[in-house]
Write a structure and sequence with these properties.
Chain A is of the alpha/beta class. Chain A has eight helices and 18 strands. Classes of the chains: A alpha/beta (352), B mainly alpha (234). Chains A and B meet through helix 6 and strand 12 of A and helix 5 of B.
Chain lengths: 352, 234
């Protein structure tokens, strides 16, 4: 029914943008967020600055939240999860649990904006020793340090003299099972490398990569400046292992463009971890019965011509719930999901 | 010989010395326009004639300096830059790098610092350098000798036997020469000697080839004295 609200699961960039779109078009939305604040991964994983434009992540997410908070047509349920769903005619009768208390929301359509989780580099293989060496960290760990304004070696609190990123950790890997590219890690690493060079100017900074995937303006906005202005050292070749030698880490790999083996000392090694379907995405896909691809992201129908419609009539998905996505992708697909969800309400109302 | 990029052969050269030479290249005003950043596309190597004949890669040059790797820089400075033919085909770089330009700067630094590799690379050019610097011209008619150019055919003998006459048959009087390409007047040669002295070219020659320097010094000091200049090259 057109007067039914649209249920949005997830209060990150995609969910917030979908809610704003729905409210701006005169419809109503219920946003269910499992955490106690809106903002999603950029806020809860302590992002400092967004890629590629270096906007403050908290401020940017705060502005998105402010656009839906205190609106009559947006009902935000924090600390809440969707625990059941039952079809009632065209409607979805959904059970939402908030702190142990269940309530029912009857929605005319559903948008899943449940996002991604960062790949756990210690899960599949210990080749990089993430849980073994204090100074082996992830993009998110470094992001947290950047946010705190202090980049130091976790092992001794000293500023690093040599820091490297290793790209494609948990992505593009048949052995691990994540054969896809996570899309954002190249850009994030280049962005963080610039921030490291600014914060610790005498820290030699390296990026070991398979190929840098800097599509569109990321090329000239972050990749080139990191290399040309901030003298970040890009080396084509992925490390095979990291070993500890005295006070340092030794990164072993091949410098493929120079055609020579490489064994270089580092103070900090940053693993550029990719994206996987979040627990929420997996759970909601199952609960709403939408098809998932082999990587457990939600499958949208009609390939590249339709980025938000799922296999279940009236259920849409957007953002990183459908696969690796940056914020630009997420807010774009969120707007599309809002539009298609409203169109589905109207079509059902017209059909009577 | 294949290029050894391990740096082992220069392990005994102090890192500070390698860095000093690299800094000398980087502080050249042209450096900024010659090097932006390299993403290893290989278009420079594809266009490079030297790369077809030697273990030489303009990409490695660009990459090495972009990485600011002083060890690698030193290896390439010694073992690679002299394989470049300075044709600048590599300038078709999408990042607008000029590996050939970087090599120009590296060669200048190698020469100015009298590196053994520069001396060795330029060893065969002593006569050419002498001729250009002493006379202001390089290829002269008297080089046309049958024993030097057997492939030019039998008439080469006729020409070289009567070179002076053949040359005087050419209408412009300035070409009635045999030992130089054309007639170089006193004012020109005096100015050339002064330029080479004042711009430091003679200092470079001294670093590279002391013997050649001494020969040129004699020729130049005498000429300049005749022209009324009191110049010492020491």
């Amino acid at each position: 029914m057109p007067d039914r609200p649209i249920l949005i699961v997830g209060g990150g960039p995609a969910g917030m943008e979908a809610a704003r779109g729905i409210a701006d078009l005169g419809y109503s939305a219920v946003v269910v967020e499992q955490k106690s604040t809106l903002g999603g991964t950029p806020v809860h994983s302590n992002y400092a600055a967004l890629t590629p434009d270096f906007r403050d992540a908290s401020e940017a997410m705060g502005a998105m939240a402010a656009a839906i908070e205190n609106r009559d047509t947006v009902d935000i349920r924090l600390d809440s999860t969707v625990t059941a769903c039952e079809r009632r005619g065209d409607d979805f009768a959904v059970t939402v649990e908030t702190g142990g208390t269940a309530s029912e929301v009857v929605a005319g359509a559903v948008i899943l904006a449940t996002g991604f989780r960062h790949f756990d580099p210690g899960r599949e293989t210990q080749q990089y020793g993430y849980y073994e060496h204090d100074d082996v960290i992830t993009l998110c760990d470094l992001e947290k340090m950047l946010k705190a304004g202090k980049v130091v070696r976790p092992s001794n609190g000293e500023p690093p003299k040599r820091l490297c990123f290793i790209q494609c950790v948990g992505s593009r890997d048949r052995q691990i099972g994540n054969e896809y590219c996570s899309k954002v890690c190249c850009g994030v690493a280049a962005k963080e490398s610039i921030e490291v060079r600014k914060m610790v100017p005498d820290c030699k900074t390296f990026i070991f990569y398979i190929d840098m995937r800097m599509y569109g303006y990321w090329e000239n906005e972050i990749y080139w400046p990191s290399q040309e202005k901030y003298k970040v050292n890009y080396v084509k070749g992925i490390a095979t292992e990291i070993v500890k030698k005295g006070d340092h880490l030794i990164v072993r790999g091949e410098d493929t463009t120079m055609g020579r083996p490489m064994e270089v000392p580092m103070d900090i090694v940053v693993l550029s971890v990719g994206m996987e379907a979040s627990d929420g995405t997996r759970a909601m896909a199952k609960l709403f019965g939408v098809e998932q691809n082999k990587y457990h992201f939600i499958e949208t129908i009609d390939g590249c011509m339709n980025t938000v419609t799922t296999s279940v009539d009236g259920v849409f998905a957007c953002g990183a719930a459908t696969g690796p996505a940056d914020i630009e992708d997420s807010v774009s697909s969120a707007s599309a999901a809002a539009m298609k969800a409203i169109a589905s309400l109207r079509a059902k109302a017209a059909a009577g | 010989m294949p290029l050894d990029l391990t740096g082992r052969q220069y392990a005994d050269v102090p890192y500070e010395e390698k860095e000093r030479l690299f800094e000398e290249v980087k502080k050249d005003l042209r450096y900024e326009e010659y090097l932006y950043g390299c993403y290893e596309c290989g278009i420079c190597v594809a266009a490079c004639p030297s790369a077809r004949f030697y273990d030489f890669s303009p990409r490695k040059i660009a990459q090495c300096v972009a990485r600011e790797d002083a060890d690698l820089f030193y290896t390439l400075l010694n073992d690679s830059v002299w394989d470049c033919s300075q044709c600048f085909s590599c300038d078709r770089c999408p990042r607008k790098n000029s590996p050939g330009g970087v090599i120009t700067l590296m060669r200048e630094v190698a020469v100015k610092n009298g590196l053994a590799s520069a001396q060795e690379a330029l060893e065969g050019y002593g006569r050419v350098v002498y001729k250009i610097m002493a006379t202001g011209t390089q290829v002269s008619p008297d080089m046309l000798q049958a024993n030097a150019f057997p492939d030019w055919g039998p008439h080469v003998n006729d020409i070289s036997d009567n070179l002076d006459e053949w040359r005087r048959a050419i209408p412009p009087e300035t070409l009635h020469t045999t030992e130089t390409s054309w007639k170089v007047d006193d004012k020109t040669i005096t100015e050339l000697y002064l330029i080479w002295h004042m711009t430091g070219v003679m200092d470079m020659i001294r670093e590279i080839d002391e013997g050649l320097f001494m020969i040129l010094q004699d020729v130049m000091e005498e000429k300049l004295e005749d022209e009324g200049y009191d110049v010492s090259f020491d």
